TrEMBL record:
Domain (DUF1156): residue spans on this chain: 18-71
UniProt name for this protein: DUF1156 domain-containing protein
Taxonomic classification: Bacteria, Pseudomonadati, Pseudomonadota, Gammaproteobacteria, Candidatus Competibacteraceae
Pfam families for the chain: DUF1156 (PF06634)
Length: 673
């Protein structure tokens, strides 16, 4: 939804047309990008595609040539409003014609097949762009092509887009040597502010939550300021952390005698069967499949031992679906393979409540290994060697807890939100603190990495006094936080891709009966060696754009820090009622970031009081949400210049929510959808 603040002002391209189908195709493709995309630095929920944000910002900054030509008939310099803004149509029209003609003549090989016919017509002289409608069409073609991820760092696309942005800014009343300001008060994962910098605007990103603020500081401030120097320090100290962590943790993740490397340990929470006279230990398993592909099928087979009140397993290669029995748990109720009794869900929960979710007493079912010079994953039953390694980790963690000093506990003891909180189920099973979501070995490994990041930050500070040390330590901390998503007791083993599925594959924290534990000392997937390079690629990809610096700040959208009439574009993707419980979910990461960045915050958890959300457990209903959204939109109107453009993203599946949000945008004289 775009919102213009003044009738007497040149229309922007977004108010006339936008090649939505082409932009959407680029946005869909972007989901599969794994090298250099900001989503790989750290998760943030409902992050918008860069392709769409880039296209929308260009189309919101650049005026429509057809409408601007009509303005040009009034003169070369037209006062608008109170006369303080002077529209100079030819500043943009001349630049756009010059740039698009040069694009056709010099860069035709970079044009998509959808845009080719229009640009080749310019090259062969069939079109001169004297017709403003032709100019409008090729600008929209350029925007659609620029939305392609492959073109997002191309120096010719960047230089042309930035020249058009500057020309548009000056044509619409901006002073030379200044840039239009794009403001996003719900900055989240940083897509909008980053794309504002990419196309040549200034960006001001703010959020109530400190994690988005930190993410946007990395993207808008640290990377543009330090560039390759930052990448070099992150690479150097990331390698040091890898070396030290593997040295410290190796004994807790031992290699197999034949040289195989465990990469994942598959566990199941257990209950005691409540069937009459039974009492067997029942591992709770959704499925017995370990690998389920056309060319590779591996499964566990249950071997009940009623006399011993236990269950054993064997691994079946080339398992057949027709021979596989179901798992032991369904809808929270557990069926005992020894006696057939089904312990109801209420009793299952009751057993776990006294054991804080049961992760510490879970049973190791299987170990996934890789073998030297042999491709693929292999499965074996656990050995006494594996159990002894887990016990050593438990003893070492207890030793470190006793020796630990500091304001923060070694393992996160901050409280989980109350039972019934939106998106949470684990409290029903006795989990009360964030540390309850981790096995003892996971906690040992993550706290080791947090300490090493602190030590790296201390060493960095000895050599850098210009803020580079803080920047590098922050990015290292994000690598740890990213790892925690794959290293907790609510992950899953994917039998289709034979890999660990992160906790936040959904926007919730549910109980997971059978979970996967990664080998953080392996140098394989889900280890520090796997996590750290993601950040490096983001730095190098973003640094190659030569962006100017933006600004990120912690602030409530309802009390914006910017002065009146300061923004050219107010562009935001606001929260949607009860769609995502951002603040509560983000505490999962916040407790680890605090332990890697000791100066991050004195607060126990992220701010909740002013969060704009519907969550009945907090007393925040629909009316509260709409009141808070109204305040945020009123602040947006105050900050937005009278001739500015407001763009509000609405991505909810129903139109009811959109209709409810329209009244929250007060005083707008025009809206076009």
């Amino acid at each position: 939804m775009t919102l213009t603040m003044h009738n007497e002002y040149p229309k922007r391209l977004i108010e006339v047309d936008l090649p939505i189908a082409r932009i959407s195709a680029h946005a869909r493709r972007e989901k599969s990008i794994r090298h250099g995309h900001i989503s790989t630095l750290h998760i943030w929920w409902a992050r918008r595609p860069l392709a769409a944000c880039r296209a929308v910002i260009c189309a919101s900054l650049w005026p429509d040539p057809v409408d601007l030509t009509a303005w040009a008939e009034r003169g070369e310099a037209i006062p608008v409003g109170d006369g303080s803004v002077i529209v100079r149509p030819y500043r943009f029209l001349d630049t756009a014609r010059e740039r698009m003609t040069a694009w056709a003549n010099q860069h035709l090989g970079k044009v998509s097949k959808e845009s080719y016919s229009r640009f080749v017509a310019i090259q062969n002289g069939a079109k001169t762009l004297a017709d403003p409608l032709d100019l409008q069409r090729v600008l929209l073609d350029f925007i659609a092509d620029f939305a392609n991820w492959d073109n997002s760092t191309d120096k010719d696309y960047l230089e042309t887009a930035r020249a058009l942005t500057q020309a548009a800014h000056e044509a619409l009343g901006g002073e030379p040597e200044t840039r239009p300001l794009v403001v996003d008060p719900f900055c989240g994962g940083g897509s909008i502010p980053l794309e504002a910098l990419r196309v040549g605007a200034d960006a001001f990103a703010s959020d109530l939550n400190p994690i988005p603020v930190l993410l946007n500081k990395v993207l808008l401030e640290y990377i543009p300021k330090y560039g390759q120097r930052l990448a070099d320090e992150v690479r150097k100290w990331g390698a040091w952390i890898k070396q030290e962590a593997e040295k410290e943790l190796a004994e807790f993740y031992p290699k197999d005698p034949d040289g195989a490397t465990p990469i994942a340990y598959l566990w199941a929470r257990t209950i005691q069967c409540e069937g009459p006279g039974c009492g067997a230990e029942v591992p709770l398993m959704r499925s017995l499949w370990l690998a389920k592909k056309e060319k590779r099928s591996v499964a566990l087979r249950i071997i009940p031992k009623p006399q011993e009140k236990r269950i054993d397993f064997e691994i079946i290669e080339n398992a057949k679906a027709s021979e596989q029995r179901p798992g032991t748990v369904k809808r929270g109720s557990a069926t005992c393979p020894c006696c057939g009794y089904t312990t109801p869900v209420a009793s299952v929960r009751q057993q776990f409540r006294s054991r804080k979710g049961g992760a510490l007493e879970a049973r190791l079912l299987c170990v996934v290994v890789t073998k030297p010079e042999i491709q693929g994953r292999f499965y074996r039953l656990p050995t006494q060697r594996d159990i002894e390694a887990v016990n050593r980790a438990k003893e070492e963690l207890e030793r470190r807890k006793k020796a630990h000093q500091g304001d923060l506990s070694l393992v996160p003891n901050e409280p989980l939100p109350p039972q019934g909180t939106l998106g949470f189920r684990v409290q029903l099973y006795g989990m009360e603190e964030w540390g309850d979501l981790f096995t003892l070995r996971q906690a040992l490994a993550l706290t080791t990495l947090a300490r090493l990041i602190q030590e790296a930050g201390h060493e960095l500070a000895q050599y850098h006094r210009d803020g580079l040390a803080d920047a590098a330590q922050t990015i290292l901390a994000f690598s740890l936080s990213k790892l925690s998503d794959f290293n907790n007791s609510c992950t899953r083993w994917g039998n289709d891709d034979q890999g660990i599925t992160a906790l936040f594959s959904r926007q919730a924290i549910p109980i997971v009966w059978d979970f996967a534990e990664a080998n953080l000392a392996s140098g394989e997937a889900y280890s520090w060696k796997w996590s750290a390079p993601f950040a490096l690629r983001v730095i190098e990809q973003a640094a190659s754009q030569n962006n100017v610096s933006g600004h990120a700040e912690q602030a409530s959208a309802g009390i914006h820090p910017l002065p009146n009439d300061s923004a050219a574009i107010f562009f935001t993707d606001p929260p949607y009622y009860d769609a995502v419980p951002y603040a509560d979910l983000s505490d999962f990461f916040f407790v680890w970031l605090k332990r890697a960045l000791l100066g991050l915050s004195k607060e126990k958890l992220t701010p909740k009081t002013d969060e704009c959300i519907v969550d009945e457990i907090k007393g925040k209903d629909k009316a509260y949400f709409e009141r808070m959204m109204g305040q945020a939109m009123a602040e947006g109107q105050r900050v937005l210049a009278p001739h500015g453009v407001g763009v509000i993203v609405f991505a909810h599946k129903s139109t009811r929510g959109w209709e409810a949000q329209l009244p929250a945008v007060p005083g707008l004289l025009k809206s076009s959808i």
